[in-house]
Design goal:
Elements lengths: L5 E5 L2 E4 L3 H12 L4 E4 L22 E4 L12 H11 L6 H20 L10 E4 L9 H9 L5 E3 L2 E9 L2 E9 L4 E5 L2 E4 L20 H9 L3 E2 L4 E9 L3 E2 L10 E3 L17 H8 L12 H10 L11 E4 L11 H8 L9 E10 L2 E2 L12 E3 L15 H22 L9 H12 L9 H16 L5 H20 L8 H24 L17 H4 L2 E7 L2 E7 L21
Parallel strand pairs: 1-9, 2-3, 2-10, 3-6, 10-18
Antiparallel strand pairs: 4-5, 7-8, 8-9, 11-17, 11-19, 12-13, 12-16, 14-15, 15-16, 19-20
Length: 575
């Protein structure tokens, strides 16, 4: 094996990622006196490409940070938002981290405004999300500030494994787009790599979101939890991808299959009406089994059978007679820009993976169980079975800032950086060995098959049989990498590494979903349709040792408890 060129860097705090959580952590680490390096797949801050981060990716008509009003006030008072976060989490959300979010979200919004962020209104921290929004954007603003500091910016950096020495994180290794290995020494590392949306055929995530942070942390010895909980929802698939929110739209709208037939009523249990399903769907966008709206999502999935060509049969939404009460000016205008007039045209729609509610287990400073390893944004899982809308972006700013400040403190105490460990050398050798793969298949071909399998078996609802198919698909992809995949371009080494990461994370999701034998929020089991607090009011934690996944039931609310509110969420629409 010929050794590829090798590049080394050294810093105090390494931030891995290119979205809003990464930029917030970078600025906070710099402000606290640390040398910083931000490593990004692709180009920094370019929407819709590798490394852009979901924060700057225009995949809907708008985005929102949930605002918090004054205590005792009428608009989103903090005590009500906290109660709603815990209720949407259905006992799976971390109460301490939710409370930090509620207390510090106003400060994060004020900080963004001081950087030049111009929100649509003061009552809702909302902005349109589109290709033209290149300057009034969290990543664009924070990137401009970062570029005025001494921060090292390393682009085309596909980091794949962490360097851990005696329980302390000391950096990371990876490969650039040219297939050349990278070694970055640091005294603290902040993972801000987003989620694993690219595991699924339909997803809002940009191309680089392949679960790298989850997989790196898992292999390094950190805990993952809540991996079975994924936010999913309805979106257009053509001519552009955009979230379709049915907020306060109780009727009339119709779902139509590829034969032109309205089909929702065919999937409703006895006693449940179309009107009831639509009314309940009007209070939340995400797929959740907490009410009868789940039957709408089940119906769409069931009608989306695959044809002989492997493509899903289209499903359409007719909104020609409907009026949208929530931010009505944005969605119709967004679609009209794409050539669709929703007052007379059908929308082609499908269920999409949106975000992972689970991730790396972190404390109040966003630090994992490994000293010097932090996780922020979607990489950190603290919101539970369902989550309130607008808390992911806000949480990225709140905990990104906290992580950057604490990482700077840890880095200053880290002393002299250690030489490359034997484990790091082995990881570098493994990465370099991918260049020897000589099969006819490409990594992209395996990736597309994996996406279809994971969407078919894990999105909306699942059961023992579908989970077995998911695991079989994962096993087959692992075998294909070893026996059939070849390196055809310099980027393929990075793509193979991403495949390994997606397979590791896919297995975590599958195993956790199989383990949780109940339905709760976004986790829906056909074979266990009821919520079971007696047996399953516990989080599922996942660790990996000697190539084996270990699952353990523990509860993040053990010290505080959790009281179910049958009235559900008070501030609606909730997500």
């Amino acid at each position: 094996m010929s050794r590829q060129p090798h590049h080394e860097f050294e810093t105090d705090v390494l931030i891995i990622g290119g979205g809003g959580a990464a930029t917030a952590a970078t600025l906070a680490a710099h402000e606290n006196g640390a040398r910083t390096l931000i490593a990004i797949k692709g180009k920094f801050g370019v929407p819709g490409v590798r490394g852009a981060g979901a924060t700057s990716n225009p995949v809907g008509d708008f985005w929102t940070i949930r605002t918090i009003g004054p205590k005792g006030g009428l608009f989103n008072p903090p005590e009500a938002v906290l109660a709603d976060m815990l209720q949407t989490g259905l006992g799976m959300a971390d109460p301490a981290l939710c409370e930090i979010f509620v207390n510090e979200a106003p400060e994060a919004i004020a900080r963004l405004r001081s950087m030049g962020m111009q929100f649509q209104s003061r009552m809702l921290a909302t902005m349109p999300a589109n290709q033209d929004n290149k300057t009034n954007n969290i990543v664009a603003l924070q990137k401009a500030i970062i570029e005025g500091t001494q921060t090292q910016i390393v682009e085309n950096a596909n980091l794949t494994d962490l360097i851990v020495d005696n329980g302390v994180c000391r950096g990371a290794i990876g490969v650039n787009d040219e297939g050349e290995t990278l070694l970055i020494r640091a005294n603290a590392v902040v993972i801000a790599t987003g989620g694993v949306g690219q595991l699924f055929e339909h997803s809002f995530n940009p191309p680089g979101n392949t679960g790298d942070g989850y997989a790196m942390a898992l292999r390094a010895g950190a805990e993952l939890y809540n991996m079975e909980f994924m936010q999913q929802g309805l979106a257009t698939t053509w001519p552009a991808q955009g979230i379709v929110m049915l907020y306060e739209m109780q009727e009339p709208y119709r779902l139509i299959n590829h034969e032109g037939k309205a089909f929702l009523k065919d999937y409703l249990p006895e006693g449940v009406t179309v009107e009831e399903v639509c009314r309940q769907k009007s209070s939340h966008w995400p797929i959740s089994c907490r009410d009868h709206s789940i039957h709408l999502d089940r119906a769409i999935k069931a009608e989306s059978t695959r044809g002989p060509d492997g493509k899903l049969k289209p499903v359409f939404l007719d909104m020609s007679r409907a009026e949208r009460q929530f931010l009505p000016e944005l969605f119709p205008a967004f679609m009209l820009e794409k050539g669709i007039d929703i007052s007379q045209d059908l929308l082609q729609v499908q269920n999409h993976h949106h975000t992972s509610n689970g991730g790396i287990r972190v404390d109040e400073h966003a630090q994992s169980g490994i000293t010097g390893l932090f996780a922020v944004g979607e990489a950190a899982g603290w919101q539970g079975a369902d989550r309130l809308g607008g808390t992911m972006l806000g949480g990225s700013q709140v905990f990104g800032w906290r992580a950057g400040a604490k990482a700077a403190e840890v880095a200053k105490q880290g002393g002299t950086q250690t030489p490359v460990t034997t484990l790091a050398e082995q990881s570098l050798e493994k990465l370099a060995s991918f260049s020897n793969l000589a099969g006819a298949m490409t990594a992209d071909q395996v990736h597309k098959r994996l996406q279809r399998t994971m969407w078919d078996t894990l999105i909306v609802e699942k059961d023992k049989a579908s989970l077995e198919l998911a695991q079989a698909g994962i096993d087959q992809c692992r075998e294909d990498i070893l026996s059939s995949v070849g390196i055809h371009t310099s980027l393929d080494i990075a793509l193979v590494a991403e495949l390994h990461n997606m397979l590791d994370v896919g297995e975590c999701i599958t195993r956790a979903a199989e383990h949780r034998q109940e339905s709760r929020g976004s986790h829906v089991r056909r074979d266990y349709p009821e919520r079971d607090d007696e047996q399953w009011l516990h989080n599922i934690f996942i660790t990996k040792a000697e190539h084996k996944l270990n699952l353990e039931k523990r509860w993040v609310c053990d010290a505080t408890g959790w009281i179910d509110r049958p009235g559900d969420v008070r501030i609606t629409p909730w997500g």
